[in-house]
């Protein structure tokens, strides 16, 4: 009797599924009959992001003599970096609710306007207080944009190219780092305040272009459906999918899939922030922890510790002179830029998990070798010196290389540092933003990404503040700390991180729903759009029937894959 009842339940849910899908297809035809006038837009998925420029440019500006003479002391230089990160932290926390209120496109425009205001304050500064205000305002805008851009891209990208699209965003970030390094290098010799005003003011130009560009971007179709604007969502889907018409099968299928998923989510508890910290049927708490872990691990690799203090590290490693160290820093920016290209080409073929694991291992090897070089050659003190004109940040001086040939040791250390940057650029750089954007359901995605992005900036701040203290107090062992992190991280990724490549956001949602405790992340878990709709209908149907509420977990138990396919085949399903 029990088996017969289960078969009857599945048959009922199958009927509900077919009825629901039929209803949506009827709606599509109704919308099509309205003869909507659609333009033939380009598929705007690549967004130019200049936030990292603002973060990186200060590493060179604070070393410029004119900036030190006119604006900042050594103590202020260190605090200016932290002010930007603090602003980004609070901006990221606020970005989740704002993205649902103003929309993804609206928050991008707001963030760009605030960025422009911060840039004006910094460029026209006549006192240190103006620079602090500009850095704080700019930080808030960076918090907004660093969350909403991956959010928007993940929601409009097709599943087979989602990783590639967000990797292009990371390419824009590395381009910003590279441009900042070389602008600092080029303007350093200017004998007046233009040497530092020019690097701080140049981002105002792309900010204006970016603001105009947001007016022509399509709104996220998932956001529109979430706001019950189905007709507008169909128009957008027809523009970015298929052949530009709402009759295309890809448009119809994706609309039905998204609509079904969001309808089920909206039938749950409306307290979305609270749902993030509950296990429930969605396992949001585990998703949130995974998203935060990716962002935190991105910082614990030590990449930003090297990027931020690269000029001082190059000087300490034996490269003489501020101008020469900035040149070497510019080369590191080029390495970072070039090695961001491979993920664009291969990230949707290789997968997230293998790339993260391989990247961590290579980074670990590089940092271990840097540790050995530091211990054997005397590269064992902190970076910078209050009294040194080459390093204004308040830190202790690094000793020059000794005990072995200085030239060979310098070359070996810099090569290892460049290899580390290349490995990071191929792995944790792009995937640190790709993976969190793929984990969450539509109802909580913006809030969750706001929290995970805030975690990124919080640990970025911590790494920035603690790194010079580590160099000063534990000397060469500072590199050893980062090598330990890089060794532990791939083990955690292998054990707990499921693969998201090739799945739609709704299919990823199904991976985490209910059966996550039984889900083996190291086994391929195929899903299709039709299967996603089918399973969502089962959840919705069984939740609505109190007599069978306790059976929901059974549908997603350990043997879900084989049992579901068997039952579906017996009932004439796919």
From TrEMBL:
Q: How does it sit in the membrane?
A: Multi-pass membrane protein
From which domain of life does this come? Eukaryota
**GO MF annotation: an example:** carbohydrate:proton symporter activity
> Which Pfam family, giving just one, matches this sequence?
Sugar_tr
Q: What keywords are annotated for this sequence in UniProt? A: Membrane, Transmembrane, Transmembrane helix, Transport
Ranges annotated as spanning the membrane: 106-125, 131-152, 164-184, 196-217, 288-314, 326-347, 356-376, 411-434, 476-497
Provide the Major facilitator superfamily (MFS) profile domain boundaries: 26-501
An example GO CC term for this entry is: membrane
Compartments where found: Membrane
- Family, per entry: Belongs to the major facilitator superfamily. Sugar transporter (TC 2.A.1.1) family.
Please state what the protein is called. And other transporter-domain-containing protein
Q: Which organism is it from?
A: Syncephalastrum racemosum
């Amino acid at each position: 009797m029990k088996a017969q009842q289960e078969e009857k339940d599945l048959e009922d849910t199958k009927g509900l599924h077919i009825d629901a899908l039929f209803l949506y297809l009827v709606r599509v035809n109704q919308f099509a009959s309205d003869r909507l006038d659609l333009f033939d837009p380009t598929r705007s998925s690549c967004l130019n992001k200049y936030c990292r420029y603002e973060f990186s440019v200060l590493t060179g500006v604070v070393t410029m003599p004119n900036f030190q003479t006119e604006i900042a002391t050594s103590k202020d230089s260190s605090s200016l970096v932290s002010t930007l990160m603090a602003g980004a932290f609070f901006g990221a926390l606020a970005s989740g609710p704002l993205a649902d209120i103003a929309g993804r496109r609206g928050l991008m425009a707001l963030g760009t306007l605030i960025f422009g205001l911060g840039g004006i304050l910094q460029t026209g500064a006549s006192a240190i207080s103006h620079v602090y205000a500009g850095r704080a305002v700019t930080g808030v805008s960076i918090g907004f944009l660093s969350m909403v851009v991956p959010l928007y891209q993940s929601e409009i990208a097709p599943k087979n190219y989602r990783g590639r699209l967000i990797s292009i965003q990371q390419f824009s970030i590395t381009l910003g780092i590279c441009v900042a390094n070389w602008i600092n290098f080029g303007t350093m010799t200017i004998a007046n305040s233009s040497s530092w005003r020019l690097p701080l003011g140049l981002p105002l130009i792309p900010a204006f272009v970016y603001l105009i560009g947001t007016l022509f971007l399509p709104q996220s179709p998932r956001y529109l459906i979430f706001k019950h604007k189905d007709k507008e969502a169909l128009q957008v889907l027809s523009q970015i999918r298929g052949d530009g018409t709402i009759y295309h099968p890809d448009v119809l299928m994706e609309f039905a899939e998204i609509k079904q998923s969001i309808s089920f989510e909206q039938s749950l508890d409306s307290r979305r922030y609270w749902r993030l910290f509950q296990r429930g049927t969605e396992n949001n708490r585990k998703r949130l922890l995974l998203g935060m872990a990716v962002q935190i691990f991105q910082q614990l690799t030590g990449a930003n510790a090297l990027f931020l203090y690269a000029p001082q590290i190059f000087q300490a490693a034996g490269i003489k002179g501020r101008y020469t160290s900035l040149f070497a820093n510019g080369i590191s920016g080029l390495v970072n830029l070039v090695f961001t290209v491979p993920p664009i080409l291969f990230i949707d073929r290789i997968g997230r998990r293998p790339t993260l694991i391989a990247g961590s291992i290579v980074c670990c090897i590089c940092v271990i070798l840097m540790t050995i070089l530091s211990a054997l050659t005397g590269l064992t003190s902190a970076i910078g010196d209050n009294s040194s004109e080459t390093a204004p940040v308040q830190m202790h001086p690094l000793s020059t290389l000794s005990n072995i040939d200085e030239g060979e040791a310098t070359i070996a250390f810099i090569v290892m540092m460049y290899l580390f940057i290349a490995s990071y650029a191929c792995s944790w750089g792009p995937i640190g933003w790709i993976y969190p954007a793929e984990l969450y359901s539509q109802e909580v995605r913006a809030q969750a990404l706001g929290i995970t992005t805030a975690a990124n900036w919080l640990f970025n701040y911590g790494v920035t503040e603690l790194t010079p203290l580590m160099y000063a107090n534990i000397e060469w062992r500072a590199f050893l700390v980062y090598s330990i992190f890089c060794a532990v991280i791939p083990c955690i990724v292998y054990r707990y991180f499921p693969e998201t490549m090739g799945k739609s956001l709704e299919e990823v949602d199904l991976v985490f729903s209910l059966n996550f405790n039984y889900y083996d992340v190291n086994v391929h878990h195929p899903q299709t759009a039709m299967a996603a709709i089918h399973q969502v209908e089962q959840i919705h149907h069984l939740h609505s029937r109190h007599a069978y509420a306790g059976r929901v977990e059974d549908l997603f138990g350990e043997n879900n894959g084989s049992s579901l396919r068997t039952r579906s085949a017996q009932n004439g399903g796919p």
